[in-house]
Amino acid sequence: MFISERDGDDVKLLGIYSSHAKAEGRIRQARLLPGFADEPECFVIDDYTLDEDEWTAGFESDFLSVRVTPPPSPPR
Q1: Rounded Cα gap, residues 74 and 76, in angstroms
Q2: Diameter of the chain by CA atoms?
Q3: From CA 2, how far away is CA 23, in angstroms rounded?
Q4: Are 37 and 31 within 8 A, CB to CB?
Q5: Could you tell me if 68 and 2 are in contact, meaning their C-beta atoms sit under 8 angstroms apart?
Q6: H or E element: which one contains 2?
Q7: In this structure, are residues 17 and 23 in contact, taking their beta carbons and an 8 Å threshold?
Q8: What percent of the chain has pLDDT above 90?
Q9: 9 φ, ψ (degrees, to nearest 5)
Q10: Which of 3, 11, 43, 59 has the fewest CB atoms nearer than 10 Å to its CB?
Q11: Which residues have a Cβ under 8 Å from the Cβ of 48 and sit 6 or more positions away?
């Protein structure tokens, strides 16, 4: 899934957290704030690997998009 600012999405980074539980807690707090409260389902948690490059193919200023991956499955 891609989020595109060209299509009207206004991407904001709330923060970088060490666990999904901490990110979910931050989302719960943000949903109470002006602006975020108007769109409570707009949040996405994305996973990244430390010390791994993300922007390897350049940057196009007229088309900014964000790669979104689903959260990992909980351990069984």
Answers
A1: 6
A2: 43
A3: 20
A4: yes
A5: yes
A6: strand 2-4
A7: yes
A8: 30
A9: -70, 140
A10: 59
A11: 16, 54
The one-letter code for the residue type at 38 is D
Q: What confidence category does residue 16 fall into, taking pLDDT thresholds of 50, 70 and 90?
A: very high
Asked if 1 contacts 60 with a C-beta cutoff of 8 angstroms, the reply is: no
- At 32 the pLDDT is 94
Tokens of 51: 């010390």
The residue that leads in pLDDT, 16 or 3, is 16
**Position 13, amino acid:** L
Type of residue at 4? S
Report how far Cα 23 is from the mean position of its chain's Cα atoms.
10
